């Protein structure tokens, strides 16, 4: 399943569908496989950081370095599972879980005030000062019953940010 000369069998497609909780139809999986094979230039069966960075939209993303930690070395099945959080069919929990992983860059299962500040810095650049970011984040955490000293687990993160309506219903270009 990663070699451009191979084709997906019906079993492979169904296995990938199951792995991504049936968020993609069979035709979408075939299209994603074609895109995966294009990115996997050396037909290794996985996509490297450099191959991901060859996608201009990915390379320009202010969170690309954080995302690279999550996607480097993904095989096709895990590539589709990663993309499933961007599906319009994905639940809010699945989307917030992906966002949590972006914030939890050290993969310790907790997100600190500083972790969130780093992401806010990446996203807002010079448009906001650190003082403004701290003020906004402190207010959001306080309203949810947390402080700047709190470490948020996934469940805490969902409680704080799960009521936000993330605009992640992005169509994934598969052609």
Automatic annotation (TrEMBL):
User: Keyword Calcium on this protein?
Assistant: yes
Q: Where are the transmembrane segments?
A: none
Domain EF-hand: start-end pairs: 27-62, 91-126
Question: Has the keyword Metal-binding been applied to this entry?
Answer: no
Query: What organism, scientifically named, is this protein from?
Result: Eutrema salsugineum (Saltwater cress)
Q: What domain of life does the UniProt record list for this protein's source? A: Eukaryota
Q: Which terms are listed as keywords in the entry?
A: Calcium
* GO MF, one example: calcium ion binding
What this protein is called in its record is: EF-hand domain-containing protein
């Amino acid at each position: 399943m990663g070699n451009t000369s191979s084709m997906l069998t019906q079993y492979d497609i169904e296995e990938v569908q199951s792995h991504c909780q049936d968020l993609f139809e069979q035709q979408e999986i075939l299209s994603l496989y074609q895109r995966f094979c294009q990115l996997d230039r050396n037909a290794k069966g996985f996509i490297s950081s450099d191959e991901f960075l060859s996608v201009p939209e990915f390379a320009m993303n202010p969170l690309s370095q954080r995302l690279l930690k999550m996607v480097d070395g993904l095989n096709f099945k895990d590539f589709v599972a990663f993309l499933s959080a961007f599906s319009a069919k994905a639940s809010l929990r699945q989307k917030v879980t992906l966002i949590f992983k972006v914030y939890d860059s050290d993969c310790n299962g907790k997100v600190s005030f500083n972790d969130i500040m780093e992401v806010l810095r990446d996203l807002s650049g010079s448009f906001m000062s650190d003082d403004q970011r701290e003020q906004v984040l402190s207010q959001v955490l306080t309203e949810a019953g947390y402080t700047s000293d709190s470490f948020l687990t996934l469940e805490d993160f969902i409680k704080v940010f799960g009521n936000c309506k993330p605009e992640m219903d992005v169509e994934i270009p598969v052609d």
